[in-house]
């Protein structure tokens, strides 16, 4: 078992009244799984993903349950242990690369960042590895991109850079939080195909968070549907789309835009 989340509850304490945003969440992932986590805004899917990635603050919220990764409970392990996993064994890509990438740092250095933190490599080795992953994410002319700044790239290119930075250390789990939302439909499809290829070639598990069920259907082999902080359905992609059990899931599927033939 690569990852096991047991009875995860997340409660915010930054308001007058504590607010629970995730209730009794359970999930298991094996090496090479691609699981879609879907639901409308506020359903708890991103909070769940951030908890798994160890990116939720610890002081103004209460988290109970277990997140077992590599036989360690990431909810209770010391910060020093958690940091060894973050960005290396567990990596995350976000919706908007321009807020995640440093505007005044060249692309190459940003891709190399996790190698600098987690791997003993020479400067030359880091550059060689960065160029390899820039090529792997299908960026034309990796040498040129390595020397560029984020504003010099298109939105699709920046998202590929984010993926390169996330996979450069060869993590076991890649969490993708709405990674295609800001992109046009053609680029969305290319990014989904790229994630499929990375999963297939590296056996890297992918947790794909999205409200776009058509992308989830293309990419994922299992789907977890969330509503109001709860899991309302958890089944194979085929089962979810062909035989949804919950009214909420049926409504989500019914809302997928359909191409009309003229």
In spatial order, strands of the major sheet run 6-7-8-3-9-10
| Helical content band | 25-40%
Based on DSSP secondary structure assignment, what is the total number of beta strands?
A: 10
- Name the beta content range: 15-25%
**How big is the Rg?**
19 Å
Oligomer: single chain
Describe the main β-sheet briefly.
6 strands, mixed
> N-to-C terminal Cα separation, in Å?
49 Å
Topology pattern, helix = H, strand = E:
EEEHEEHEHHHHHEHEHEEHH
Descriptive overview:
With 262 residues, the protein is an alpha/beta fold. Helix 4 packs across helix 5 and helix 4 runs parallel beside helix 7 (155-167). The protein is 39% helix and 25% strand. 39% of the residues are buried. The strands form two sheets. It has a six-stranded mixed sheet, with helices on both faces. It has helices at residues 45-52, 79-85, 97-100, 107-118, 123-136, 142-146, 155-167, 185-202, 213-219, 237-242, 247-254; strands spanning 3-12, 19-29, 34-38, 61-69, 72-73, 90-93, 173-177, 205-210, 222-227, 230-236. The chain is globular and about 50 Å long. It contains eleven helices and ten strands.
């Amino acid at each position: 078992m690569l990852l096991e989340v047991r009875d995860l509850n997340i409660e915010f304490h930054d308001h007058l009244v504590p607010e629970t945003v995730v209730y009794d969440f359970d999930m298991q992932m094996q090496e090479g799984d691609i699981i879609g986590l879907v639901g409308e805004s506020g359903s708890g899917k991103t909070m769940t993903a951030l908890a798994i990635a160890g990116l939720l603050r610890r002081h103004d919220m209460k988290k109970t349950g277990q997140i077992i990764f590599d036989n360690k409970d990431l909810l209770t392990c010391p910060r020093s242990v958690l940091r060894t996993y973050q960005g290396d064994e567990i990596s995350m890509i976000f919706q908007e690369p321009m807020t995640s990438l440093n505007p005044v740092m060249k692309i190459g250095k940003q891709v190399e960042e996790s190698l600098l933190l987690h791997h003993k490599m020479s400067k030359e080795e880091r550059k060689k590895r960065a160029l390899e992953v820039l090529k792997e994410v299908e960026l034309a002319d990796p040498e040129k991109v390595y020397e560029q700044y984020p504003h010099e790239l298109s939105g699709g290119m920046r998202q590929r850079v984010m993926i390169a930075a996330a996979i450069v250390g060869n993590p076991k789990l890649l969490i993708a939080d709405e990674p295609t939302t800001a992109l046009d439909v053609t680029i969305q499809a290319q990014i989904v195909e790229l994630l499929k290829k990375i999963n297939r070639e590296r056996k890297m598990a992918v947790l794909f968070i999205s409200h776009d069920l058509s992308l989830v259907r293309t990419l994922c082999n299992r789907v977890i549907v969330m509503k109001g902080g709860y899991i309302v359905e958890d089944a194979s992609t085929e089962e979810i789309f062909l035989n949804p059990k919950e009214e909420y899931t049926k409504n989500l599927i019914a809302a997928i835009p359909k191409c009309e033939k003229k």
